[in-house]
Design a protein that fits this description.
The complex is a heterodimer.
Chain A: H1 6-12, H2 17-37, H3 65-88, H4 96-120, H5 131-146, H6 151-174, H7 180-204, E1 236-240, E2 250-254
Antiparallel strand pairs in A: 1-2
Helix pairs in contact in A: 3-4, 3-5, 3-6, 4-7, 5-6, 6-7
Chain B: E1 10-11, E2 17-18, H1 21-26, H2 28-61, H3 108-134, H4 141-163, H5 173-180, H6 187-211, H7 215-238, H8 243-247
Antiparallel strand pairs in B: 1-2
Helix pairs in contact in B: 3-4, 3-5, 3-6, 4-7, 6-7
Classes of the chains: A mainly alpha, B mainly alpha.
Chain lengths: 268, 258
């Protein structure tokens, strides 16, 4: 057995623990300082496995008077398109089609008035229906109406809801519009939308009893021409379509356009 | 097994090495040096972390090296007393697009405009009250008139509440006098007159919106317009007016110059 002098061996060792710790410490500190002083950290330089699609940031959307008017214009086109579909579907046999055509003309006049206001703001009018309103509310509702066992009533309910949505949209925009003159213009359009709701409410529930709020036998609220004391901004639930096994129709809940469905100025 | 720099190790009878107390005392200055080094390392790393983190935020939040734009206007609800002690503090952000935000409360000019609206609503309230008091309504007609009367009471109360001490709780006598003599006869004729009154009130309020600066007043008037339009159309529909007369408002604004 060799007699090893441990102490001597330790002294002669170039890689002592002290040296190791000192070296690693200096290296680590220098690395941290260099990283902290760097101006830009490129996340793209990180090693990655597989394909990474580039992300395109959506433009920043500012809610301006122009955007609000473009959004209102899109809702007018929602109504125009819906009425055209309902009339083409020949759901109504009576003069209701004429009323819907008249309402459609009113909406076209509203859209034209809004177009003029948008141009005054140096904006671009939006001559199309609101895509989110179409996809979320109108398309599903039209499918239910066409499949319904009572398409006449359901089409009237849908039209009433759409007019309510339009009136609520203008009322909701009053607090967001910066120009008082535009608030007044918006409510002058809402005035007529509200009158449309009354005509449709009377078609669904005619007579004096249909003017005041009421409930059916199961306690559900009925359509009323004068539903409340103040204009509501709440959601608009409608029950349409073919009843299920329990006798209940499908309920859709419509809402006025908000941040995710505004027609921002970058939308063509 | 080597123990590095330790020069004085002892071997026990089992061949393993242990540190003796005297040895520990002897190497005290050396271990304190190592502690200093660790302390320095940790301190340097801790100081570098915030700088490193901020540079990462900049890199992640902006596609270029430009500074992240500051929020134009930020308000917090710090001053709002919390209902529950130690509840988490909620924060809200208000971003303005550069324009001056309109006031919430009515301005001095708004108060004049809203007082005219209040006077009109009080006059309409009294007109409906007169019809109810006359007692000529049927069981079907009465709920409609009572409902609309209650709405005008609510409008007057809301306008009065918004105006506070500035409210002039006096009906617009010109409006009252202009219509009170005509509210007689059959329900159809009365409803037709009431539809005109409602149309006039709607026109009045729509004009008011052009002048109102404060948002609270504007939103209240807008919510009143939404229903008074329905009043007018509903009263027009029960009197079998043609569609145009129901959905169009040809009535002049009432109480102009009041």
């Amino acid at each position: 057995m060799n007699d090893i002098n441990i102490t001597e061996a330790a002294r002669n060792n170039a890689f002592s623990r002290r040296t190791l710790l000192r070296t690693s410490g200096i290296t680590l500190t220098a690395g941290v300082l260099l990283a902290a002083c760097s101006k830009k950290i490129s996340t793209g330089s990180l090693p990655r496995i597989g394909e990474s699609p580039t992300t395109t940031m959506i433009p920043e959307g500012l809610v301006t008077d122009e955007v609000l008017l473009r959004t209102a214009m899109s809702v007018e086109y929602n109504a125009i398109d819906t009425y055209a579909t309902v009339v083409d579907a020949k759901i109504f046999k009576t003069g209701t089609n004429d009323i819907l055509k008249r309402f459609s003309e009113d909406h076209a006049a509203h859209a034209a008035a809004l177009s003029g206001l948008i141009k005054q703001l140096n904006g671009s009018p939006y001559n199309k229906a609101n895509p989110n309103v179409t996809s979320l509310y109108i398309n599903p509702a039209l499918e239910l109406v066409t499949a319904s066992d009572d398409p006449v009533t359901d089409a009237l309910v849908l039209a009433h809801a759409l007019e309510t949505l339009a009136a609520e949209t203008y009322q909701a925009f009053v607090v967001m519009l910066a120009d008082p003159a535009l608030r007044s213009a918006a409510m002058s359009i809402a005035d007529q939308e509200a009158r449309h709701t009354v005509v449709l409410a009377q078609a669904i529930r005619p007579g004096l009893a249909g003017l005041v709020p009421g409930t059916n036998d199961s306690g559900k609220p009925l359509v009323a021409a004068i539903p409340s004391a103040f204009g509501s901004l709440s959601t608009i639930p409608i029950a349409i379509g073919k009843p299920n096994e329990s006798g209940n129709k499908t309920t859709l809940v419509l809402e006025t356009p908000s941040l995710n469905s505004f027609i921002y100025d970058y939308i063509d | 097994m080597l123990y590095g720099h330790r020069s004085r190790n002892t071997t026990n009878n089992k061949g393993s090495q242990v540190d003796t107390p005297e040895h520990t005392a002897a190497v005290q200055p050396k271990t304190s040096s190592r502690r200093r080094m660790f302390t320095t390392l940790l301190g340097g790393a801790a100081a570098a972390v915030p700088t490193l983190a901020s540079s990462r935020v900049r890199a992640a939040g902006a596609s270029t090296d430009t500074t992240v734009p500051e929020v134009a206007e930020m308000t917090t609800t710090d001053s709002i007393p919390m209902m529950i002690e130690d509840a988490p503090m909620m924060q809200s952000k208000t971003v303005s697009a550069g324009a001056t935000a309109p006031p919430l409360q009515p301005t001095a000019q708004d108060k004049e405009t809203l007082n005219i609206a209040l006077g009109v609503e009080l006059a309409i309230r009294d007109l409906y009250a007169d019809i109810v008091a006359a007692g000529d309504l049927s069981d079907e007609e009465s709920p409609v008139i009572l409902l609309i009367h209650s709405h005008h009471v609510a409008y007057a109360q809301s306008l009065g509440g918004l105006l506070g001490r500035a409210a002039i709780n006096k009906r617009n006598d010109a409006t009252y006098a202009a219509f009170s003599g005509n509210l007689k006869g059959t329900f159809t004729s009365i409803a037709s007159q009431l539809a005109d009154i409602e149309n006039g009130a709607v026109a009045r309020h729509i004009n008011s919106l052009k002048q109102l600066e404060g948002l609270n007043g504007s939103t209240l008037i807008a919510s009143i317009i939404s229903i008074e339009s329905r009043h007018a159309a509903a009263l027009g529909s029960v009197t079998k007016k043609p569609l145009n007369a129901i959905i169009e408002n040809y009535q002049d604004s009432i109480a102009i110059g009041a």
